[in-house]
Amino acid sequence: MIVIRALVAAVVLAGAAPVRADEPPQGIHAFVAAYPEHLLRVEGGYLWWRDGTRMPLAALGLGRDGRPVRPQGKPAADPLVAATEAISAVDYEPIYLKIYGNCRAGDMADRLATVRWNRASPDGPVELKAARANGVAAALQRVSDALDREAGGEAAFHRATGGTFNCRAIAGTDRLSLHGFGIAIDVAPTEEGYWQTADTDRKGRPIRRNHMPAEVVAAFEREGFVWGGRWNRFDTFHFEYRPEYRIATGGPLPARLTRESFTGFFGGRVRRPVVERMSYAPRPKGAAVCHRWVRQPGPNFGRCLSAPVRRDRR
Q: Hey, what's the torsion of the CAs at 86, 90, 95, 101, to 10 degrees?
């Protein structure tokens, strides 16, 4: 409740329409509440920015009323799930390109700050780059310091990282990864923690195995990050700065951010309404699966290093 009261005060001071503490802003309005330094209001079919520019809601996959253009089916019965679906239906890429910058268009050095990750390590901290805007780098530093305080020099579970800033596309799409904005981090990556490289069950569904300690997840979520372990297409070592989710749900997050059948922009641009970006993708018997792939930033990121393994599922 304290979080929501503070949010309400911030929104009022920012000049946006006030919201009730028991009715957190939903959809595109949650973005306005989450980024008050940049966004002002939603009005007349536009998203209004503090620098005086306006962005058509149509560019975000929304109608003039701020609701998704593509039908999403019946609203979820669980209000928390419904709130996250309203967020996932917004095409965030145009918003983030304006806030954080386009790494494909030029140097991002001035837009990034250094995070000294795991300062309590006997081997010394690892320096990572994260976005300055919205205090993302500062929030990430607080996450690391909180984990250091909780586990001290024994915090081996969060020493290894797959990096933060990396100007690359989301696998299988032409959309910029959130790593390209400097607002995502991979912590202690494992092959079985990612839905595309995890083992599968008899029906070809990825088997979810999570090794991320609950205290690590809690430390990130307190600072506005979303954990990829909550996704149906799980990525259990991935965290990304998305405070609009926490705002829309009034604080708590559901076990799954959307239903398996939800169709939205989350994880890739929707090409047609029947595409299910958040659902499991069953692999047929004998399908090729890569189990060793390049995780380091660079032109070879994601390239398979091993001969694809064909597994018979009995």
A: 110
* Averaged pLDDT, 106-125: 88
For 51, 239, 240, 285, 303, the CA distances from 236, given in Å and listed in that order, are 37, 8, 12, 25, 20
* pLDDT confidence bin for 156, thresholds 50/70/90: low
For the chain, the domains span: 2-286
Query: Alpha-carbon distance 193 to 206, whole Å?
Result: 10
* 122-150 average pLDDT score: 91
Q: Which of 241, 161, 160, 228 is nearest to 198 (CA)?
A: 228
Q: What is the mean pLDDT of residues 146-172?
A: 74
CB 40 within 8 A of CB 32: yes
- What's the burial of 61, exposed, middle or buried (CB within 10 Å: 0-12/13-18/19+)? buried
